[in-house]
Design brief:
The complex is a heterodimer. Chain A is mainly α. Chain A has one domain. Chain A is 52% helix and 6% strand. Chain B folds into two domains: 119 residues, Nucleic acid-binding proteins (OB fold (Dihydrolipoamide Acetyltransferase, E2P)); 90 residues, Rossmann fold (3-Layer(aba) Sandwich). Chain B contains six helices and 13 strands. Classes of the chains: A mainly alpha, B alpha+beta. Chains A and B meet through strand 1, helix 1 and helix 2 of A and helix 3, strand 13 and helix 6 of B.
Chain lengths: 63, 242
């Protein structure tokens, strides 16, 4: 998710994740929240998140 | 186009390679090039046999250190498809249903649909392309990735983030990209088949990236509606590689 204020960064985990899980999705990694400030360098924000997340997701998909 | 049957080093040459290529005729021409191996057995590639025309002129048979080269394996630049991709042979996607010998002339306008990870090639450094290629070859499975962005504004920065996430996860461009704003007029039409169709294509992917801006400390109603506005089918099936 994206947003202006870091105070909302749990919105991914608190609001979006339960809906996806309820629908039957496997959600193996922490959600990514990018703040207004971080949008200036999207690739850096995504890369930092992907360090832990990418392999979890790829492994889950490769079962 | 052709299929690489065999690649071997030149008997007397350093960093010169020979390949036998199946091109749907009763013989398999040998093609020679210098540098890195570039292609492997089984790869589907654009081939310009002697006598064919490329934007830069007519292909001729040539000889390299005693070995005949009957034509050339083409890069996107040589085909005239993308001038920025000069230094490697365009590898064709197995999923495009091409057969050796088939002409690619009519595919020039939609070349991204037949070239592997086409969305990443333009202006990409060769080490990135090398990495993509390695991932593609080593991956026992290539993940199919879907992207769904629930921002009422089309082509938003949120959508850019979602695309960046998909690029980071996969070796190939996302297979399904849904920027929900583009479907806004029909999205909330309960009788319309649009949303079910979209979400069925998302459910068929191995990995889905859902993106939303923060509205009222949560995700948007647009994304929520796309997730729960239809009877989601297929999600409970285990997601698996093709």
């Amino acid at each position: 998710m994206t947003g202006g204020w870091p105070g909302h960064l749990l919105a991914v985990e608190v609001h979006l994740r339960p809906v996806l899980v309820e629908l039957g999705a496997t959600v193996p990694a922490r959600g990514l929240y990018v703040t207004e400030q971080e949008l200036a360098d999207v690739d850096a924000a995504v890369a930092a998140w992907a360090q832990a997340a990418a392999s979890l997701i790829q492994r889950a998909a490769a079962r | 186009m052709g299929r690489i049957i065999k690649v071997r080093p030149h008997p007397f040459g350093d960093r010169i390679w020979l390949a036998d290529v199946e091109i749907g005729r009763d013989y398999q021409p040998q093609i020679v090039w210098g540098g890195v191996p570039l292609v492997y057995e089984g790869d589907l590639v654009p081939v310009a046999p002697p006598g064919s025309w490329l934007p830069q002129g007519k292909m001729r048979r040539r000889r390299y250190r005693g070995e005949v080269s009957e034509g050339m394996l083409c890069s996107l630049a040589e085909l005239g498809w993308d001038p920025s991709v000069t230094d490697r042979v365009a590898l064709l996607d197995e999923r495009a249903g091409l057969t050796p010998g088939e002409s690619l002339d009519s595919r020039a306008s939609d070349w991204p649909s037949i070239v592997r990870y086409a969305g990443y090639l333009s202006n990409s450094s060769s080490d990135i392309v090398y990495q993509l290629d390695r991932q593609y070859r080593e991956g026992a499975c290539v993940m199919r990735i879907a992207v769904v962005t629930g921002n009422p504004k089309p082509s938003s920065r949120t959508h850019d983030v979602a695309i960046a996430v998909a690029r980071t996860l996969g070796a190939t461009p996302p297979d399904v990209v849904v920027d929900l704003a583009e479907y806004a007029p029909s999205l909330f039409d309960a009788s319309g088949p649009e949303l079910s169709r979209l979400m069925a294509s998302v459910a068929a992917a191995d990995v889905a990236v859902f993106a939303s801006p923060t509205y009222k400390a949560s995700f948007t109603g647009m994304l929520r509606h796309s997730l729960t506005g239809t009877a989601a089918t297929g999600w409970r099936e285990p997601w698996r590689c093709r």
